Amino acid sequence: MSMKKDKHITMREAKERTGLTSRQIRYYDEQNLIFPARSKGNQRLFSESDLQRLLKIKKLLAAGNSIETIRLKMKTPQAKEIDPYAQLSEFEDSINDYADEELDSLYPVSNRFALLKKLTFNDHDINDQEFEEEN
DNA sequence: CTTCTGACA
DNA sequence: TGTCAGTA
């Protein structure tokens, strides 16, 4: 049974889906942040994970991270499959990424990461308040 | 017409 | 990073 078909993504689609310029994408490739395959004509063939990485890179870059920092932070796709902790680390990163978003109400639980972090963050504050009220 | 590499106001 | 050149 085949998994998801690794449909080759062209540079054009990569640009459209990431909002990055071809110049930026090639530069990130040159910096070994992504590892797209190549066609016989030396054309870059991006995978779905490459697109995800590009979006991640765009986000980290906008957050003020350097290329070097991002390279260390994201490791290689290979390491993610082998190292179990890489996945946990990735999950923690996801929490930090999404938890910064505002959370007005607890009802629209569309952002579970924000909710999770908000709960863990206010945990001691809530206890302090309850402690004060009880005394 | 689009992508690729190398180079540079 | 943008962009121009010269290919493929």
From TrEMBL:
It comes from the Bacteria. Keywords: DNA-binding. It comes from Halanaerobium salsuginis. InterPro entries: DNA-bd_dom_put_sf, MerR-type_HTH_dom, MerR_fam. This is MerR family transcriptional regulator, glutamine synthetase repressor. GO terms for molecular function: DNA binding; DNA-binding transcription factor activity. Residues 8-76 form the HTH merR-type domain. SUPFAM superfamilies: Putative DNA-binding domain.
